[in-house]
Write a structure and sequence with these properties.
With about 350 residues, the protein is an alpha/beta fold. It folds into two domains: about 130 residues, 3-Layer(aba) Sandwich (Oxidized Rhodanese, domain 1), CATH 3.40.250; about 210 residues, Rossmann fold (3-Layer(aba) Sandwich). It contains 17 helices and twelve strands. The strands form three sheets. It has a five-stranded parallel β-sheet. Strands 7-8-6-11-12 form a five-stranded parallel β-sheet. Strands 9-10 form a two-stranded antiparallel ribbon.
Length: about 350
């Protein structure tokens, strides 16, 4: 009988992680790096669940065997190929019959395998606890600034240059503004967003300040988990100053894709009341005639700057200029050094 072990982060790199749940469950969320090898399809799980409630566990298990036994060789072959010699960790929802069945198949065919005690539910408890009383593994440096400042581009540059960063907008697939979904794809489910965010923090090296972008509590349809938002507000806030002309150019470059024309029209419609009738008409005409720079300027002056940071109830601990990213990175390094010296 395969043994069960409790979740630890080291399992994510030491084992091939196999999710035996249905594709529908897997899409909602799964352990980082897991592959989905379902023993039941979505429809089969519903059928088995109904039989279990109406006729009892024995009838349900017999039906489950009828539905799945022909897939056993393919299940073992798929996992063996993915494992490539590594030991296997199998889980289902609560560490029950689905993961046990897959684990027994692997054990009987000679592959090293363990079950995750408590299944996905136990891993989910780890993620919830991490954010419930969030304690960052290193000091947070939170970048704030007006829309179009280039904060996200700067953050990605820092990541490429070896800084510890967490890209909240990238993980949420949304830039947090009225036009924030363009080119980002569909947002992940809330649970999957939280798992990705947990994994991002978990992967960071110890001791380095963590750079991330200031966000509201909500990013599109997603919500920052636990008290992360409050902890960000309590950590070091850095204001990113940029001229209006630079912001216009950066927004225009970001928006100037023909594929964005319809999504931009839809976004304008959503903020029509906030803009007011006359401003909406003016901006819509600029969009229809594809005058993207003028549209970007109009959005900055008539919407973004009136809505975001109009009243700021806090003062930043430092300010950097994002006119030139090279210079901004040096300024940020100096700030990190100064703050580190103050804490010694």
């Amino acid at each position: 009988m395969p043994c069960s072990i409790a979740f630890t982060t080291s399992l994510l790199t030491s084992h091939c992680i196999v999710d035996a749940r249905t594709p529908l469950e897997f899409v909602e969320d799964h352990l980082p790096g897991a592959i989905n090898v379902p023993i039941l399809t979505n429809a089969e799980r519903v059928e088995i669940g109904t039989l279990y409630k109406q006729q009892g566990p024995q009838i349900a298990r017999e039906r489950g065997l009828q539905l799945t036994c022909h897939r056993f060789p393919a299940i073992v072959a798929t996992i063996a190929e993915a494992a490539a010699g590594r030991p296997v960790l199998v889980y289902c929802w609560r560490g029950g019959l689905r993961s046990e069945s897959v684990a027994m198949l692997l054990e009987m065919t000679g592959y090293p395998v363990v079950k995750l005690s408590g299944g996905y539910k136990s891993f989910r408890a780890v993620v919830n606890a991490f954010f419930e009383e969030f304690q960052p593994p290193a000091p947070l440096m939170v970048l704030h600034g007006m829309t179009g400042s280039g904060k996200t581009e700067f953050l990605l540059r820092l990541a490429r240059n070896g800084w510890s960063t967490v890209d909240l907008e990238g993980l949420a697939r949304h830039r947090g503004s009225a036009f924030g979904s363009m080119g980002m794809g569909e947002q992940p489910p809330q649970k999957q967003f939280e798992t990705r965010l947990w994994d991002a923090f978990n992967r960071l090296p110890a001791g380095q300040p963590i750079i991330l972008e200031g966000e509201s509590k909500r990013i599109g349809k997603l919500t920052l988990p636990g008290n992360l938002y409050e902890v960000m507000a309590e950590n070091t806030k850095i204001w990113c100053k940029v001229s209006v002309e630079t912001r216009v150019n950066r927004l225009a470059t970001e928006y100037a894709h023909e594929a964005y024309r319809q999504p931009m029209a839809e976004a304008l419609e959503r903020i029509r009341k906030k803009l007011g009738g006359e401003q909406y008409v003016n901006l819509k005409q600029l969009l229809d005639s594809w005058q993207i720079a003028d549209l970007a300027r109009g959005l900055i002056e008539q919407y973004y700057d009136r809505l975001y940071y109009r009243v700021r109830h806090w003062e930043p601990q430092a300010t950097i200029s994002l006119e030139e990213y090279d210079i901004a990175e040096k300024q940020l390094a100096d700030i990190c050094g100064q703050l580190a010296g103050q804490k010694q």
